């Protein structure tokens, strides 16, 4: 906790979990985080070896922040914290969720025993953020989408994260909550059935 326990540190780390991010991208996803605090946290995380600063090759030629291998190893810790948090009776699923946080939640809330031999690829659009996922050999991997990605078996899109939460976890009909789905309807239902929130703890 001495390394990652300061306010904002874990949300900042979370936003880099799927790949490098620009300073402005991180700040835009975390309302209430000042530029000064973000600078301080990034410097602290860099000094401890959790974050590194890179430069993108031309034509971008901009600085980005990325997690080191040690930083990426925090994902199982954050998954356990996520499972713990949603078990609270005070958990409010209607609160805003960033696109990266949504994708990480899907990696957290998939139920391995339900996967079986199911294998597929999926695209996720959350507002302007785009991701590509592959379910294979019992594991769900998710990364930012690339221009040369193959056409996925399923494609999901919504303007924000809540429609995903309502459909994947709340099991509301996708069309009723604003989640558009392209691809085989039966395959989509099989895929969405893999996800479930843990039961609530008694108050």
TrEMBL record:
**Pfam families, sorted:** HxlR
Could you tell me the superkingdom of the organism this chain comes from? Bacteria
UniProt-listed Gene3D superfamilies: Winged helix-like DNA-binding domain superfamily/Winged helix DNA-binding domain (1.10.10.10)
Coiled-coil region: none
Sorted keywords for this record are:
DNA-binding, Transcription, Transcription regulation
**Which residue numbers delimit the HTH hxlR-type domain?**
1-93
Q: Which PANTHER family does this entry report, sorted A to Z?
A: TRANSCRIPTIONAL REGULATOR, MARR FAMILY, TRANSCRIPTIONAL REGULATORY PROTEIN
- The protein in question is named Winged helix-turn-helix transcriptional regulator
- Organism of origin is Novosphingobium soli
């Amino acid at each position: 906790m001495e390394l990652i326990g300061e306010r904002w540190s874990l949300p900042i780390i979370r936003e880099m979990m799927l790949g490098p991010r620009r300073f402005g991208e991180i700040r835009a996803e975390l309302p209430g985080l000042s530029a000064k605090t973000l600078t301080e946290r990034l410097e602290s995380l860099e000094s401890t070896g959790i974050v590194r600063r890179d430069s993108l090759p031309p034509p971008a030629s901009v600085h980005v922040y990325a997690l080191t291998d040690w930083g990426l190893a925090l994902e199982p810790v954050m998954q356990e914290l996520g499972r713990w948090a949603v078990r609270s009776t005070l958990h409010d699923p209607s609160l805003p969720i960033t696109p990266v946080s949504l994708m990480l939640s899907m990696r957290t809330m998939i139920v391995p025993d339900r996967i079986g031999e199911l294998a597929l690829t999926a695209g996720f659009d959350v507002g302007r953020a785009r991701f590509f996922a592959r379910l294979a050999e019992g594991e769900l991997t998710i990364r930012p989408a690339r221009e040369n990605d193959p056409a996925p078996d399923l494609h999901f899109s919504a303007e924000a994260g809540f429609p995903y939460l309502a459909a994947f976890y709340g099991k509301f009909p996708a069309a009723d909550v604003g989640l558009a789905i392209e691809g085989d309807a039966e395959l989509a239902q099989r895929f969405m059935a893999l996800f479930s929130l843990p039961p609530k703890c008694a108050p």
